[in-house]
What we know:
single chain; alpha+beta; Rossmann fold; 6-stranded mixed sheet; 24 strands
Amino acid sequence: MLRLxxxxxxxxxxxxxxxxxxxxxxxxxxxxxxxVLIDVSGSMKKTDPxxxxxxxxxxxxxxxxxxxxxGVWQFADTPKVIVPLGLVNAQWQQQATAAAQHISSKGQxxxxxxxxxxxxFNAQDKASGRQLHVILLTxxxxxxxxxxxxxxxxxxxxLEPILQQYIDLGARVHTIGLSHQADKETLxxxxxxxxxxxxxxxxxxxLLDIFLRALDNTVITQQxxxxxxxxxxxxxxxxxxxxxxxxxxxDNKVQLRDGRQRLFGQQQTLPNQQWQTSATHDVITIQxxxxxxxxxxxxxxxxxxxxxxxxxxxxxxxxxxxxxxxxRAYIDVQLANERSVLLTENQLxxxxxxxxxxxxxxxxxxxxxxxxxxxxxxxxxxVLDQAGMYTLNILVAKGxxxxxxxxxxxxxxxxxxxxxxxxxxxxxxxAEEIAVVTEAATVNEPASMAISKEQASPALQALMTxxxxxxxxxxxxxxxxxxxxxxxxxxxxxxxxxxxxxxxxxxxxxxxxxxxxxxxxxxxxxxxxxxxxxxxxxxxxTxxxTxxxTxxxTxxxTxxxTxxxxxxxxxxxxTATDPxTATDPxTEPKETMDASLDRWLVVIGAGxxxxxxxxxxxxxxxxxx
Length: 625
């Protein structure tokens, strides 16, 4: 009897293991580890004479979300920690505001490599599940000595072993060059190889805007739209806290009017308000703000942004921050509640997702899409044929509730993107596999867009892998092939792979057919035998037969499923390798669905067989007693 009761337990275990991956939705990471590196070399006296790095850093640290892990270093000849690594909270932010006051420009050299070593991530940081980011500000070249040869060695060391550690851990490096005297080639290479962002601030007055753009590319900051002419904004009742950034423009008596039309300034703050001021900006943090229309009251000041935190969480992942002309990137978005639990299908009703692409404030595209329950909602960006820095505005709306998230996308010319091979001829990088879309998709119809089989950077591969998506295979080309001989070798390899894969597919198909036949025969025989045995014999015999049949059926089903899976994988490989055998995008989802349905029917059939055997065994036991 023990074996009889063991059979249903095994059946339940098998079904739980099969249904488990389908029942649990993969969510996107929303926690960050951010390390800020500030150049304090002597040349900063010329490029930043007013030391505008101080207010820019103060605003940046005030805008870091609570719970983010962060730290700040300054560097010149050697790096120095000015704000230790820790979790961002009110105390950490106060410490950062005070530490920023001590930034100076007294160093002799600009040792960027030493700074990256000091702030380096490790395997434990990667295992924490946080997204890893560095924001680096400098105005000069890699400079550690008066010997130019030593400086060149330091630059190569920076771009190879030091930066490789960041690449291996999936960390992104966002670089900011203060003035055109900065080593733009090195800084852009660092950003490109780690899929980070790069921007030059022509003067220190632009520093805060570029800091904020770098911040937007590292954390998910929800903003509410600002009515520019009225200098006002709407606050909903579900907002738990908000941070208002005001550019003073000479006004040191800035005031705000809250949702109840009450005026207050730096000297009239309430217990739930915190007002931080600097030479150029005010940052006002308000807990549980009153719902309604808020406005800035000032003759010259302007609202820079309003960040809000509420019960709605926007989980977002961008496939690439750097692509080349003709390539395509995409964005995955999910919505969750304050406990990071994904919203259900009913809760998603009424929410819309909009993605606007801009270049130099000119709108390139604007897509609208509804959210998909229990999986990432993916929006493919249009194919961009012009190089430049694009702004991506992601808009989540439901009625009067509107949230904006801003990101950047750098589109490089096909031949102008810097690579390590330009610095060192000894270790050229391997060719990067990334899809090039051969036909432009219709921007206004996201569902009909051609889908490229992209390979995200190492930093994103774990996050971007999701069985909920079935991408249409396309021809994969090598973007960075470095010689005709290498390109010829790649083509030969592709041909061999396609031939081998086709042979393997044929073999797997034959095996699969044989396995299916054996499974059907075994199932029919097992059913007849079990029925006769259950009628003529007692409980023990029935239990033995049930256990044996379960083992046989499970083994056959497993073999059949494995063979089907191998055949599907081989077919996809052959399709992606050989353009002549490319799958029709219109038929592939149906074929995938049919294959999945066949496998489930086998599993359900096995379950019904076990149920029948269990019923007959119980009847036989009752008759025997």
